[in-house]
Structure formats: C-alpha cells, structure tokens
Amino acid sequence: MSVAADSFVVQIKDLHVEYKTYAGMVKVLNGVNFHVDAGEKVAIVGETGCGKTTTVKSILRILPRNSRIPKGEVLFKGENVLKMTPAQVRILRGSGVSMIFQDPTMSLNPVFTIGEQMMEVIRNSGSPGAEKREVQQELAVMALRETAMPDPERIMLSYPFQLSGGMRQRVCIAMSLSTPRDMVIADEPTTNLDVTIQDQVLKLLKERVESKHSSLILITHSLGVARETSDRIYVMYAGNMVETAPTKELFGEQLHPYTQALMRCIPRLSGGGVAEGIPGRIPNYLTPPEGCRFAPRCPHAMERCRSEKPEFIACGNGHMVACFLYDEKGGC
Ligand code: SF4
After folding, report:
1. Ligand 1 atom closest to 256 (CA)
2. Which residues line ligand 1 (CB under 6 A)?
3. Residues with Cβ < 8 Å from 326, sequence gap 6 or more?
4. Between the N and C ends of the chain, which has fewer C-beta atoms within 10 Å?
5. In terms of residue numbers, what domain contains 207?
C-alpha cells in the first residue's frame, strides 16, 4: 500500500459479517479489507446486495441485531470499534463519524423542527461551547448557510415535511458537518432525489467535505458518480473488495474481470452502442461459492478459482486486485 497504516482514519481487516435468518446463516461479508486515509474521498462501487452498506454500518456499530461478526477488525484512528464501550461508541457517533442515509426522510424526525434536530446533534458533538444554546443556534445557522440554503433562519423553524427532498438532503449534509468530523459516510445520498438535483447535491457534499478536511466514504452503484466524487475507488463484489485504485488509474485500466464487466455497463452516449449487462447474478449468501465468489460469472474462471479465495495483490500506483489471473502470470 502506498500510505502508512497510522495515517488511516478507518481500516477494516478481514471482516466477516453474517446475518441469522430463518433459512440459516447468511454469510454477507467474506473477509473485507479496506482503508481510508485522512482527508481522502473513497467510493465503494458494486451491485445492490454486494455488502457495501453492511461494510460501512460496521464502522458505526449500527448493524442489525440479527448480525454476527465471527472474524475481523474495524479500526477507527487505530482503535478497534468492535471492542469499544457504549460510551466510546457514543463519542465516535457524536464527533468522529457521521452518516448520511439514502432517504433523508428516514434520518429526520418529522415531529421536531430542523433547528431543534440540528442543535441536538451539535449539543451531542462535545465541541467547545456546544452545551450553550446560543452556540448551537449559531453553528446550525452557519452550517445551513454553508450549504447555500436560502434563508437558513426560516429553515431552522421548518419541519421536514415542509422541505423538498433535495432540501432535506442538504439539511442532512449540513447536520453531518455542523461540527468537525474525521469521517463522513454517505450511503447512496442522491438515489431518492430527482435527477435534476442529484448532481448539485453530490457537488455540495464533495465541496463541504473538502472544506472541512474530513474523509469521505461514498457508497454508490454508479461508476460515473464515483468518478466525479472520489480520489480512490473500491470495487466490491459479493462481500469482498475485489479491486482498488486511484480513480484516474482505475478508469485508465481495470484489472479484475468484474470491474471490466462493470465498465462495460456504463451507457455510452457518444455513439458507441448500448451498454452490456453482466450475465448471471450475485450468489446466494446462504451457500456462497467456495473460492472466488465471482467464479460462476467469470469468463476466465480456472480450477483453482473454485476452491481458493484470491487475496489482494499490489500492482503499483496504489492499484490492488484480488484475482488469480494476475497471480498466475506472476504479477499484474
Ligand atoms: Fe475470475 Fe478466477 Fe479471477 Fe475470480 S479469481 S475473477 S474466477 S479469474
């Protein structure tokens, strides 16, 4: 890896997550390795159901009750989140990491005004002076103003239902950055918004994260969104990170057969034809394939792929891939 491990804000090592269901144990994460450097904007890209949300929820310890972590570590600034006490987790959520969800209506309480909710977040942040109401008020108005909200004082007195979807997501961005944060996690933050404002909201998120010197994890199923927003991309497939590279490098060359297939799915607007789909589907996590989980869909699958799990190998320039094709050739 190109960066020193002690500069990581978040590092996930060999994380396995399972969900208990009536049908049996669903093995969703299958040894995820992942890191985010200080001030870095990282996108996690992959199909729906590949484990992106499960990965980031483990950072905040907000996995559902039926989950189990049989193996792995989640480090936030070197501290294992999975071993934190409830008081340490409260500090982590109050001032270390904030999360912006897909649906802003789910994150805002309908019976409190925007101002009351923002001030509560600021009060719980532990920032200097944050216990005083006038400081909470001032920081909340300032955060709304920084997201180019018209008339922030009026927004403070509004209830969520009085705002449009785009404005509610702006409020969530303002709320997540109203006090200093080491890390912002945004889970498909524009999926539920009108296409015409998706771009504005993503630009705003990127600009606010940069101006506050926070790190960002953006979850998206769109390589186009990842390209516009991130410094580095992780490609995730069926509970594993299969490739990572600086964004420009990844768009220049894709090594993993799944990433290559994802690239072919991008619609071409310049007369290059209609985008292809990826044949097959994500495996059943109750009985996932033994070795490489992409093997049933991979046109290059070999005998070894069906019994052994490929691990990341470094290919230079921060590019890493988990695929035996490169190992077989003795490099990338
Ligand atoms: Fe395909 Fe094998 Fe590489 Fe998996 S490890 S992507 S099955 S070639």
Report:
1. 6
2. 256-257, 292, 294-295, 298, 300-302, 305, 310, 323-325
3. 255, 313, 315, 332
4. N
5. 5-328
